[in-house]
Design goal:
25% of the residues lie in helices and 36% in strands. Strands 1, 2, 3, 4, 5, 6, 7 and 8 form an eight-stranded antiparallel beta sheet that branches. The protein has helices spanning 46-53, 56-62, 147-177; strands spanning 5-6, 36-42, 67-73, 81-87, 93-104, 108-115, 119-130, 133-144. By secondary structure, the chain is of the alpha+beta class. The protein has a single domain, classed as Alpha-D-Glucose-1,6-Bisphosphate, Chain A, domain 4 (2-Layer Sandwich), CATH 3.30.530.20. A hairpin with a 3-residue loop joins strand 5 and strand 6 (108-115). Residues 1-25 are annotated as: Disordered. This is Polyketide cyclase / dehydrase and lipid transport. InterPro entries: Polyketide_cyclase/dehydratase, START-like_dom_sf.
Length: 184
């Protein structure tokens, strides 16, 4: 972990228990299959973009076609965990628990998504300055997978997730520039 790395979740002292360390690096030996990746340059500077993505509630704003929030954990403006329903191909849904595990200020947000008892993925947002905007990479590395999820991934689930990632990145710029009212 670098000097500017934060322990868990957004940079709020009460957002998560202290003493949590960064998520483990994903090496070839710990991945199941190829990563699921989408990239896009958005016309938002890294600082405001990082602040937007550091609250999990905002993630669901940009992925609303594919995700329904069941529950958010943490205080408003500093949600660091969630339970959600993710739409999959063929009308299938999977309940997922997600948690931000580590951040590197204005550069990276790393979390884990747990699907059922057997499937887990490390999900990372990487932000790099690109002119007046930011190059954003959204990447998921499947760490372990149950039989049913392995079959779903093989039958088009990876393509479906990549498409959902690309749609979320397509919504990111507008969502950052049009914050939701505080009265939600």
């Amino acid at each position: 972990m670098t000097d500017d790395a934060l322990p868990l979740a957004p940079p709020h002292a009460d957002a998560a228990p202290a003493g949590r360390s960064a998520a483990p690096a994903v090496g070839r030996e710990s991945r199941v299959g190829a990563p699921i990746v989408a990239r896009r340059v958005v016309a938002v500077a890294p600082g405001p973009l990082f602040a937007f993505l550091a609250d999990l509630e905002n993630h669901w704003r940009i992925a609303e076609r594919f995700v329904r929030v069941v529950r958010l954990e943490g205080r408003r403006g500093a949600h660091h965990g969630s339970v959600l329903r993710v739409a999959g191909p063929l009308g299938l849904y999977r309940t997922t628990q997600a948690e931000i595990q580590a951040t590197v200020r204005e550069r990276e947000i790393v979390g884990v998504a747990q699907v059922g008892r057997r499937t887990a993925a490390q999900v990372a947002w990487r932000l790099e300055p690109a002119g007046d905007g930011t190059a954003v990479t959204l990447r998921a590395d499947v760490l372990r997978v149950g039989r049913g999820d392995r079959l779903l991934l093989a039958l088009g689930g990876r393509w479906w997730l990549r498409r959902g990632f690309a749609a979320a990145l397509g919504s990111l710029e507008a969502a950052c520039q049009n914050p939701v009212d505080a009265d939600r």
